[in-house]
Amino acid sequence: MKTFNVAIVGLGTVGSGVYKILKQKASLLAHRAGVRIRLVAACDNDAKKRRALNLSRSIAVRDLRQVVNDPKIDCIVELIGGKGIAKKLILDAFKNGKDVVTANKALLAECGKEVFAAAKRSDRQIYFEASVGGGIPVIKSLRESLVSNDISSILSIINGTANYILTRMSIDKMDFKQALKLAQHKGYAEADPSFDIEGIDSAHKITILSEIAFGKSVSLKEVYCQGITHIDEADIEFADEVGYVIKLLAIAKQTKGGIEIRVQPTLLPKDHILASVNGSFNAIYLHGDETGDMLLYGRGAGSRPTASAVVSDIIDLAKVRCANAPLLPYPAFAPISAKKLVDIESRYYLRFSVIDKPGVLSQISSLLGKQGISISDVMQRERKAGRVVPLIVLTHEAYEKNLRAAIKQIDRLKCIKKRTQVLRIEE
Ligand code: HSE
């Protein structure tokens, strides 16, 4: 049996999971792949991480240059993350004739074009299943299993941390900080958790998905991105009362006016298929012209689920190099323009902080009406005459530009005491 020599660089949450799978399942993998995967180096400059895995002396490496320059290594598994050292490692690996497996969504979303061009120049490959959806084989499904489909829309929950936080806030009534701490403790969060809670991680991932699904990638700067830090427990409760849950959705749609792509906290009806995707689970709900609607669901973060995706890429590359399996074409990652947010139509959830007195609702509805925005539901639960209360308004479909114009005027009214909370609704 032929052997494919692999080095893992970065022994954090995912790297240690990859190490364990390769070690514990070596014979199963060889049997299923028809190629033996040999781990020849496990590298991290942090001695604690190396020691935690009890690595044998023959594979423990501190300095990644040793790995890049080792001619017997066929494939480098880059699990450092980010665009600094990781990018240099990947580019050097190509130059030295090595393939790469990575989970690095930030790098691919921001520098995908450059990275794939470099791979092509060196006739090497970079596989990246673990960059989106943790253990869910979404990249492979899109590139291979759904190859005959035109994908028209993707609605996705692709950040486990944010989904975990919103779930704990909604089911266990935790506050934001408690829920974030727990998510970090469970190993779901990025090194910098602001990537998770500000929606940036989801924006990276939807940029990659749109490239693979549509063959077009919107430049990351054009992806409208709103996180969950401003979601109040009150919004979750009000949404619940009117039949919705709040999820951080990453959305990409091909429309006549161009590609719509955005990350935003969104109200979903409780019977929507994505509404029951809870905890660290991720789901990608897409529409193919041949298959119709499809849901891919699974663990989107965590050590072993993400490592499962990394190992699948290692096996695919081993089959290419050792058993003449065909290479997949290089994605182009060529940025195109996205549809402007102001031209997008949506339903809206609006939470006004208003003085409780007669005539307030009519002032608000009149300004919404002037912009052609029609109201579908109004809710005021508290009665505190002369003091501030929340007033919830749901609208029918409206253009973002009209909504913004109306809110700008409404927020100037004397009876409005705080900036209005605006969330979008998907059906
Ligand atoms: N931090 C990510 C998440 C996992 O919470 O989904 C890795 O992409």
Main sheet, how many strands, which sense, barrel? 11 strands, mixed
Counting helices, strands and paired strands, the structural category is: alpha/beta
Which architecture of the largest domain would the CATH scheme give at its second level? 2-Layer Sandwich
Question: What's the number of extended β-strand segments?
Answer: 19
Radius of gyration: 24 Å
| Name of the CATH class of the largest domain | Alpha Beta
Global shape: elongated
Bound molecules: L-homoserine
Averaged pLDDT, please? 96
Approximately how much beta-strand content do the residues carry?
25-35%
Could you say how many structural domains there are in total?
Answer: 3
> What is the CATH homologous superfamily assignment of the largest domain?
Dihydrodipicolinate Reductase, domain 2
Structure description:
With 427 residues, the protein is of the alpha/beta class. The chain folds into 3 domains: 3-134 and 303-329, Rossmann fold, CATH 3.40.50.720; 138-299, Dihydrodipicolinate Reductase, domain 2 (2-Layer Sandwich), CATH 3.30.360; 344-425, ACT domain (Alpha-Beta Plaits, 2-Layer Sandwich), CATH 3.30.70. The chain has 15 helices and 19 strands. It has helices at 13-24, 26-33, 47-52, 64-68, 85-95, 105-121, 138-145, 160-171, 176-185, 194-197, 200-214, 233-241, 303-323, 360-370, 400-410; strands at residues 3-9, 36-43, 60-61, 75-78, 99-102, 126-127, 151-157, 217-218, 224-225, 244-255, 258-269, 281-288, 292-299, 335-336, 345-355, 375-379, 388-395, 398-399, 421-425. α5 runs parallel beside α6 and α6 packs across α11 (200-214). L-homoserine binds at residues 159-161, 188-190, 196, 201, 300-301.
